[in-house]
Design goal:
Helix content: 55-70%
Number of helices: 17
Distance between the termini: 127 Å
Number of domains: 3
Largest sheet: 4 strands, antiparallel
Strand content: 5-15%
Radius of gyration: 44 Å
Shape: rod-shaped
Number of strands: 6
């Protein structure tokens, strides 16, 4: 049977498709061989660059010739006849796409090498970033993939070395200062046409990968750490001053510290100044660099130093209310600035509150230790002490004469205790925090409890004199409780944010104890048994 015209056209289309597919496959093999072996070229790079145009032409052949012919043949009902040719074309399509990835990746590496050779390290890092993303997407079995990786690694190593050199020149520090070169002072390479700021250099390191970036940042942090460690050392009374010269310098100035500042306040202010200086001068307020800087310097070095200064042994220094307020203001300012700059939520205010709690508990423990030591003294040693009676009747003086101050013969132990209680009440009234005022006041109250416990344990069965002395001691302490409540109670209440603090409830138990001792002195009656809780406290 003779072929119809339609069949003849179909045969021609199929033959043309087969020929074009074979030519495309041959061209692909030639380009791959050219890339892999560098045929007729002085180097593999020259061979690959010479193949860029040929890959582009192959792509055009696929898009403009073969694919329309395949669509036409399929439309004429020749799908079964062109299956083999279609498979070949699709295979060629994949190989062309792989070749395109290779030449695009190599073009990016060529650009990075050119920028690095010209001394433009920031641009070189940007080109390497682009090349790295293309290299990661490239099939490891693709032509020339191994050589591309080798060239990329060599370029990245050269860029890292140059960045470290520039940063070593831009950031210098010792134990007396940190100097960060201004943007107009850093020359980026021999042939650079513009200066580069330090934060641009640190940002450029991001393109070199996590390991290289970490090494570069660690080197900068290591350079700054001696100065930061020195100025945040506990007990260091130096202050910091900033030099506004072309080289931005933060340095120690030993003459700029006031004597009223405590170490915790100074450490907090120094940390605030160090962070602000390095953030502005070194990082250029870059959010990404802040996260790295926080992990490498702020979190492991600066914040622990401030917290250590805040939670120092409170027995060393007892800050005044004004000093504690100044320290709190400095801590709140540092924490707010860290949060505003994006360094995360610091816990410095919480550490300060913990330090205040620790200081309050230590102050109360000191008061109670002093009270116990005083109450373990000689209760037989007596002396006269002024003591207004807690009754309405007083001795009348002769006309024209001042009434003599009422006195009681009391134990010297009680006078020592009264001095301790007065001092603790004064500290509570001027405490820097409400918690410290409340805790110190509880120490005053427990001191009276201690007295009742120690007094009840005294053996006066054979000494009426000691019994009378103990009765006077109880009356003296009752008068002391009333005086502290009246004279210092309002001030302590304001400091502790509790308006009704008082020791009036201590008066009646002390009077009852005095009546017991007086009865013992007069009638030889045994003194009242001490309460179990008070005996435990006295012990």
């Amino acid at each position: 049977m003779a072929d119809t015209p339609a069949q003849a056209g179909a045969t021609t289309t199929l033959g043309y498709l087969a020929d074009r597919s074979a030519q495309l496959a041959a061209s692909l093999r030639e380009v791959e061989a050219e890339i892999l072996k560098g045929q007729g070229a002085t180097s593999l790079a020259d061979a690959s660059r010479g193949s860029h145009a040929r890959v582009a032409r192959l792509r055009a052949n696929l898009r403009e010739t073969l694919q329309p012919l395949l669509d036409e043949a399929e439309g004429e009902g020749l799908r079964g006849d062109i299956l083999k040719v279609g498979d070949e074309v699709r295979a060629s399509e994949k190989r062309v796409a792989a070749l395109e990835q290779v030449v695009e990746c190599e073009a990016s590496i060529d650009g990075a090498e050119a920028e690095l050779g010209a001394g433009r390290v920031v641009e070189a890092c940007a080109a390497l970033d682009d090349a790295g993303s293309k290299l990661d997407a490239l099939d490891r079995e693709a032509p020339y993939a191994g050589e591309l990786r080798r060239r990329f690694d060599a370029a990245a190593t050269g860029a890292e070395t140059r960045l470290r050199e520039l940063l070593a020149h831009a950031v210098t520090a010792d134990e007396s200062r940190i100097a960060v070169e201004a943007a107009d002072g850093v020359v980026c390479g021999r042939l650079a046409d513009r200066p580069v700021a330090t934060f641009e250099l640190l940002t450029a390191a991001r393109a070199l990968g996590c390991s290289a970036e970490a090494r570069i940042l660690d080197e900068v942090v290591e350079r700054c750490s001696p100065f930061v460690s020195r100025c945040l050392t506990a007990g260091n009374r130096d202050a910091l001053t900033s030099d506004g010269s072309a080289r931005r310098v933060l340095k120690v100035d030993a003459d700029a510290v006031t004597e009223n500042s405590v170490d915790a306040e100074l450490c907090t202010k120094r940390a605030h100044q160090v962070v602000a200086f390095l953030d502005d001068a070194l990082l250029g307020n870059d959010a990404y660099l802040r996260s790295k800087f926080h992990a490498s310097l702020v979190a492991p070095l600066i914040l622990p130093a401030v917290e250590k200064a805040l939670v120092r042994d409170p027995r060393d220094v007892a800050p005044t209310q004004k000093q504690m307020a100044a320290t709190r203001q400095a801590v709140e300012g540092l924490e707010a600035d860290l949060c505003g700059r994006g360094y995360g939520n610091a816990s410095l205010v919480k550490a300060l509150d913990h330090a205040a709690t620790t200081a309050a508990e230590a102050a109360r423990a000191r008061v109670l230790d002093e009270a116990r030591k005083a109450l373990r003294g000689d209760w037989h040693n007596a002396t006269e002490a002024e003591c207004a009676p807690l009754v309405d009747r007083v001795n009348e003086a002769e006309p024209g004469e001042a009434a003599p101050p009422p006195t009681l013969l009391v134990s010297a132990v009680v006078l020592d205790l009264a001095s301790i209680i007065d001092r603790a009440a004064d500290e509570a009234a001027s405490a820097p925090t409400a918690e410290m005022a409340s805790t110190l006041f509880s120490g005053v109250r427990l001191s009276f409890e201690l007295f009742r416990g120690f007094a009840s344990l005294q053996d006066c069965s054979r000494s009426p004199r000691l019994a009378r002395l103990l009765a006077n001691d109880c009356l003296f302490c009752a008068r002391l409780a009333a005086r502290v409540s009246v004279d210092r109670g309002p001030a302590i209440g304001r400091a502790a944010a509790q308006p009704h603090l008082s020791l009036v409830d201590q008066i009646e138990p002390l009077r009852a104890l005095a009546d017991g001792f007086r009865a013992k002195a007069d009638d030889d009656v045994s003194p009242p048994a001490p309460p179990a809780l008070l005996s435990a406290i006295a012990a």
